[in-house]
Write a structure and sequence with these properties.
Number of domains: 1
Strand content: under 5%
Keywords: Cell membrane, Membrane, Nitrate assimilation, Transmembrane, Transmembrane helix, Transport
CATH architecture: Up-down Bundle
CATH topology: Growth Hormone, Chain: A
Subcellular location: Cell membrane; Membrane
Pfam families: MFS_1
Protein name: Nitrate/nitrite transporter
Number of strands: 0
Distance between the termini: 23 Å
Radius of gyration: 21 Å
CATH class: Mainly Alpha
Largest sheet: none
Shape: globular
Oligomer: single chain
GO biological process, one term: nitrate assimilation
């Protein structure tokens, strides 16, 4: 069986589509759990008497460890396959999600928040799995849609967790116990999805890596082993250019997830539910915006090839940076939300456009490429956290600095260039995928999602 040349959304008959739907679902649940405590921070801040400096440390901890784990899981996918890697991450990641309910001090809470950050590496596995399942003509769309729908978990958690807490409080428990009981929801969801992932997915269209290797079948990515793949990826300058761009788009995205609810509470005196709804609207853009970035990248590639993909990424990052500067100057709730949605649209689309490029950087080092670039997102988030800490919690100053940095980092997108030989090889694979799709039975319009 070969890679899928179309995306039949309402079908679970093929391993490609089962992987597509379960990998975005797994990422959704992980993202939900990753930021489940963020909208509850106004309550937690009061319980532990947290200072601005301590809150900044918590926000940094939430994304710091993800850098290391993202670097590791890419090569692990190459070695053990995305099925085993994702299942293990879901099971192990549920432990600190449930365990944070036991925190009794700032130090204990910081420790669990740091450990929870590991599940942010789920993104890399999602992008890896869709990359090996879908052909060049739709892989950008598949990557962006799966990641975008998964990212929406960050928006849902901003809206849903305050409601979960409110529901728990109706049973007469105190807030100090209520937020702890609320964390059972994301932890249990992770364990349920772990079972589904193990049972219903496989590593690639042909089967699972372990069985394929035992039969002597050559695997497109990772045949040399995890470390070799990682080293090959790290020697490619294009990887580091996209490392920077991803830090400037996804890094900003997860930074906003961490501070948005508290920002609306502190600056505009909104209550917890209203702040959650305002903050959640940013994350919910991922339902379509990230996919739109991938779809546009695939469409432009039909006309302009790989150079068109890089040009789109450049334009989206310029829009993101300018929009963030606008957001920093907003002086009313309505204007702040409009500005947030405007720069958020460009931010999510830029994330999709970045990972629409990832499968074409180095096919033989896919896990390493995906892992390093994915880690760049968390480096960006950590850097944003330190900027906020350096600005002594001044969020307006922080957003102004970050907006300017995003505009500058857009130059790295333009710096990504490919040799004529590379372009010719990728164009041949693209046309092969188009021909395979044309020869296959066409999907019904209602069930297909593809660029063209």
């Amino acid at each position: 069986m070969s890679k899928a040349t179309s995306i039949n959304l309402f079908s679970l008959k093929t391993p490609q589509m089962r992987a597509f739907h379960l990998t975005w679902l797994a990422f959704f649940v992980c993202f939900f759990a990753w930021f489940a405590v963020a909208p509850l921070m106004p309550v937690i801040k009061t319980e532990f008497g947290l200072s601005k400096d301590q809150i900044a440390n918590i926000n940094i901890a939430a994304v710091a460890v993800t850098i290391l784990i993202r670097l590791l899981v890419g090569p692990l996918c190459d070695k053990y396959g995305p099925r085993k890697t994702y299942t293990a991450l879901l099971v192990l990641g549920a432990i600190p999600v449930l365990g944070i309910a036991l925190a009794q001090s700032y130090a204990g809470f910081l420790f669990f928040r740091l450990a929870i950050g590991a599940i942010g590496a789920s993104f890399v596995i999602t992008q890896y799995h869709t990359s090996v399942m879908f052909a060049p003509n739709v892989v950008g769309t598949a990557n962006a849609a799966a990641a975008g729908w998964g990212n929406a978990g960050g928006g849902v958690t901003q809206t849903l967790m305050p409601l979960v807490l409110a529901a728990v409080l109706t049973f007469g428990v105190e807030q100090t116990l209520g937020w702890r009981l609320s964390m059972i929801v994301p932890g249990v969801l992770m364990l349920i999805v772990a079972v589904l992932y193990w049972k219903y997915t496989q590593d690639c269209p042909e089967g699972n890596y372990k069985e394929l290797r035992e039969k002597g079948v050559e695997i497109e990515s990772g045949k040399k082993g995890g470390l070799a793949v990682f080293l090959a990826a790290s020697a490619n300058y294009r990887v580091w250019m996209l490392f920077v761009t991803y830090g400037a788009c996804f890094g900003i995205e997860i930074f906003i997830h961490n501070i948005a609810a508290s920002y609306y509470v502190d600056k505009f005196q909104l209550d917890l539910k209203s702040a959650g709804l305002a903050a959640g609207s940013f994350g919910l853009l991922a339902l379509f915006a990230r996919a739109l970035g991938g779809i546009l990248s695939d469409r432009i590639a039909r006309l302009k090839g790989l150079d068109g993909r890089t040009l789109l990424l450049f334009a989206l990052m310029i829009g993101e940076g300018l929009g963030l500067l606008w957001f920093s100057s907003a002086d009313s709730v309505a204007l702040a939300v409009v500005a947030m949605l405007a720069f958020g649209l460009c931010t999510h689309m830029a994330c999709g456009a970045t990972y629409a490029l990832v499968p074409f950087i180095d096919r033989k080092s896919l896990g390493g490429v995906a892992g390093i670039i994915g880690a760049g997102g968390n480096v960006g988030a950590v850097a944003a956290g330190f900027v906020m800490k350096g600005a002594h919690g001044d969020i307006v100053q922080t957003f102004t600095i970050l907006g300017s940095a995003v505009v500058l980092s857009s130059l790295c997108a333009i710096a990504v260039r490919f040799s004529q030989e590379h372009k010719t090889r990728e164009e041949a694979l693209y046309q092969q995928a188009v021909a395979e799709r044309a020869s296959a039975m066409p999907a019904t319009p209602a069930a297909a999602m593809e660029p063209g």
